[in-house]
Amino acid sequence: MLVDSNIQIMDSFDLTVLIIQRICTLLAFLIHFPLTLLILYKSPTSLGAYKCLLIYISIFELVYAVLDVLVSPELYTYKSSFMIVLDSNKTFLPFWMLYPINLLFCGMLGCSMAIFTINFIYRYLVMKGYEK
């Protein structure tokens, strides 16, 4: 058993999950921030609307990573359903703020799937080209 900053006892699995979440957030920043800068300043203007889509996806994922650290959610799945549980001891946010941020996190989780779908549909349509 290990102790976190709130003097709560955490077992090794919970601590491992928490560390992995923090490392993945750091990786998201290390990847998406330079990626956004590269898209803005080094990509050709011929990309057009796709350039804007890539910037939007990158910024969206940065915000999502921040929310993941703020909320520290625990996701449970069963068949086609999922449930998100928040432990108020694992976050430094006040209790009254957890519910709206959890709603935002859940909404962004669903939007994330839709954004990747839009990205692949856009790429497919560009590759297929215009047909009469």
From TrEMBL:
The keyword Transmembrane helix applies. InterPro entries: 7TM_GPCR_serpentine_rcpt_Str. GO terms for molecular function: G protein-coupled olfactory receptor activity. GO terms for cellular component: plasma membrane. It comes from the Eukaryota. Keywords: Membrane, Transmembrane, Transmembrane helix. The keyword Transferase does not apply. GO terms for biological process: olfactory behavior. The chain crosses the membrane at residues 20-41, 53-76, 96-122. This is Uncharacterized protein. It comes from Caenorhabditis remanei.
